[in-house]
What we know:
- The chain has a domain at 2-88 and 154-217: P-loop containing nucleotide triphosphate hydrolases (Rossmann fold).
- The chain has helices at 38-45, 68-78, 94-99, 109-122, 138-151, 168-183, 195-198, and strands spanning 2-7, 10-16, 27-31, 57-58, 61-62, 79-83, 156-160, 187-191, 203-208, 211-217.
- It is built from 7 helices and 10 strands.
- It is an alpha/beta fold.
- The chain binds adenosine-5'-diphosphate and magnesium ion (MG).
- The site of magnesium ion (MG) has 2 residues, from α1.
Amino acid sequence: MNKSYIMGANKLHVLKGINLDVDEGEFVAIMGASGSGKSTLLNIIGMLDTHDSGLYELAGVKIEKLNERKAANYRNKFLGFIFQSYNLINFKNVAENVALPLYYQNISRKNRSQIAMHYLERVGLTDWAHHMPNELSGGQKQRVAIARALAAKPKLLLADEPTGALDSKTSAEVMKLIQEINDEGKTILMVTHENDIAQMCKRIVRLKDGMITEDIKIEQRRL
Ligand code: ADP
Ligand code: MG
């Protein structure tokens, strides 16, 4: 897979022949220095951006030249996202945030709220369902985001520096939860530049200047 950004007369070749194959159930850390192309890769995999050449296949479906509507549809069906900055909707309460991806799936309001409560229980936030995001700590917000990412039963969970804004104790708690979610069979791709965090995954893919320089399976550090 290749990806360039055009800026005026300049072309910035950001991904240079990325060849990556991830099986169902894997837990992959994508590492590399700032600017190495980690977020670009994750955004293409997440259908938030498009690649220029090469093949991207997700769960047996070729992903190419999708219009925005189709991309949104596939994103909803296949993918869950966790971001460093949580990306919760501030004017909706916790349960409404978790239920949001289900809104686009033709699920009744009552069912949506039951599913949201199920996943809030899964992340230990049942008592916070009717609170607003700004009443929560960073760790709690990220757990809400994880519940939201899981609610639509995605094939693949994409996380871009999910612990990047958290202190080390809270990071460990969030990573423990993410490990348990992987134990249950969920495939996870996580961008991180922290070695401690990468050691809690099961495979490390290292990027440098848009190329994969290392791709190794590791002994997962458990919490
Ligand atoms: P990382 O996440 O590893 O820090 P990125 O994928 O964000 O790296 O960026 C890789 C390179 O691509 C950087 O040089 C960055 O400036 C550039 N870049 C990223 N997004 C864009 C964009 N939308 N337009 C132009 N250049 C971009
Ligand atoms: Mg990045």
